[in-house]
Amino acid sequence: MQVILDKNESELLELFSEEAIQNRIRELAKEINNTFPKNEELVVIAVLAGSILFASDLIKRLHMPIQFEFVRLSSYGHDQKSSGNVKPVDLTLPSLEGKNVLIVEDIVDTGHTANFMIDYIKLQHKPENIKFATLLDKVCARQKHVDINYRGFEVDDKFVVGYGLDYLGYYRNLPYIGYFPQ
Ligand code: 5GP
After folding, report:
1. Looking at per-residue confidence, does 7 or 38 come out higher?
2. Out of 109, 156, 157, 166, which one is annotated catalytic?
3. Which of 69, 104, 120, 165 is the most buried (most CB within 10 A)?
């Protein structure tokens, strides 16, 4: 079946190349490796679906024993603006009590999703230590403050796709990040 979208990949303008993304991930991994003890387990929680490529590439470069877990939240629906209304779809996690936890997001926009996740993990799971990493930070759209420990790149108020980020479920597979000109 042919997929007809109102936006075409050939119109995409590249914002961060594959090489730039991979270089930045190497730097972030170095910072994380310097923060957490080498011999202590780290539970990495990827917020699906957007962070899956970022989290997968990041954990390959971490040196401590990694437990890779997933939660699924939804805040955009089919819109290009964040609803601010975080809908937990699947929050199934093992016990995190007393553990080192790293939450991994694709992008922090209004900040509602990140705040929800951090508060939920802290209150429900009582980890020893919790840190938050995001590949992209749309600072200009922030409505709620988020303590970001590891940040890949800052972006301005554009709807971006690629490298995990979708438009109507498509473009997640692109190895780079881009945007559609208005
Ligand atoms: P927030 O709760 O911070 O407003 O939104 C976070 C979620 O909205 C992200 O995890 C991501 O799924 C989605 N999102 C925010 N900005 C963008 C964007 O520019 N492009 C895409 N594809 N998703 C976005």
Report:
1. 38
2. 109
3. 104
